[in-house]
Amino acid sequence: MRRSIAYVALSLSVAIIASPLSAQSLPEPTVNIEALALRIEAACLEAAQPIEDATVALDATGDATRAYAMIEGVRENGVRQTRICLYDKASDTVVLSAPLKAAATGPARPATADAEADTASPDPTEDLVFSGEPFPLTAEDRAELLALPNRVRATLADLQAGGWTPGGLAETVLSGLRGGSTRLSAVRPGRYECNVVWYGFLENTRQYIGTHRCRVERDRLGDLVILKLTGQNLNATLLEFNDGDVAFAGRSAPSGSLAQPYDPDRPVDRFNPNFGNVVGRVVTDGRRIYLIDINQRGMTEPDPTYFQVIELVP
User: Signal peptide position in this chain (predicted)?
Assistant: First the structure.
């Protein structure tokens, strides 16, 4: 059996087959990450047997509770399959998903979705005008911020056309992204719980990822920042733009690491390419704060329907 290994960030909790790792206890926090990666890789490959010509893409760091891998290989019948392997840190087991379906074989895009929303491409006449001094966003991040509202609208329209009913969170985000209704003065400093939710990832509609701890405070320059303190960390500076919209520009970091501010000169973490600069939009209902982004750093292939919401609850 031939195999190769790469490091990417993925997350999907579709549990089909559970296979325990060795009888060893859970690794101590100081465990060698390369040794842990090889251990998880071996267990995922064992759970996926029989499989040939396997490629494993692995994020051994993961978050506080899980690590992730994607396995692609050829089954005995000659069919190439891709499956998600999830490692649970608490139970020391791996869980294997059912084979993923290729996007090309999925249902055609409903005509109603095309009528309600454009593609995720931004309007070429649109631009970002920040209040105060210009913020040094990279061209790629500027384009991502401009594309975000259309991505969210298109994804939610697709999901609704397929029979899914959006909940209050999706409706709040959609309403907030219409623009002109969010001010930095409505963002209150303090401690928050933050719920992480993914929409439109692969064939999922809405996927709850976890609840973590966040804090809103002012940095030494007086700017409002949001810090995600558990799970994958985030340091996000809030920026008012276009007279009534708020964006964030920040940087992600692995669990247990200190996330640094946005760095236009070093978009990707030099030690782990799954982390780096992240940008998105911010909306608030006067009490809760919502960070929305479409960043897919570390994913093997871009997912044209994915977006993430971090909901901060005081």
Answer: 1-23
- Cβ atoms within 10 A of the Cβ of 197, count? 19
Phi, psi of 39 (to 5 degrees): -65, -45
Cα–Cα distance, 270 to 257 (Å, whole number): 14
- For helices 139-161 and 168-176, give the axis angle rounded to 10 degrees: 140
- Tell me the C-alpha to C-alpha distance, in Å, between residue 124 and each of 141, 147, 155, 177: 15, 10, 21, 18
Tens digits of residue pLDDT in 46-82: 888 887 777 888 787 777 778 888 888 776 666 777 8
What is the 8-class DSSP label of residue 104? Answer: G
SS (HEC) of 233-274? EEEEEEEEECCCEEEEEEEEECCCCCCCCCCCCCCECCCCCC
| Residue entry with tokens 């609840």 | 211
Query: Strand (E) positions, the chain?
Result: 3-6, 17-20, 52-59, 66-74, 80-88, 93-96, 190-199, 206-218, 224-228, 233-241, 245-253, 277-284, 289-293, 307-313
CA–chain centroid gap for 151, Å, is 14
Are 293 and 279 spatial neighbours (Cβ–Cβ below 8 Å)?
A: yes
pTM above 0.90, yes or no: no
| Cβ-contact 282, 238 below 8 angstroms | yes
**Distant-in-sequence, close-in-space partners of 236: CB < 8 Å, separation ≥ 6:** 225, 226, 227, 228, 248, 249, 250, 278, 280, 291
From the CB of residue 265, how many other CB atoms can be counted at a distance below 10 Å? 6
Res 33: pLDDT = 74
C-beta neighbour count of 116 within 10 angstroms: 15
* C-alpha 264: how far from chain center: 20
CA 154 from centroid of its chain's CA atoms = 18
- Answer with the residue of higher pLDDT: 39 or 260: 260
Side chain identity at 134, as an amino acid letter?
P
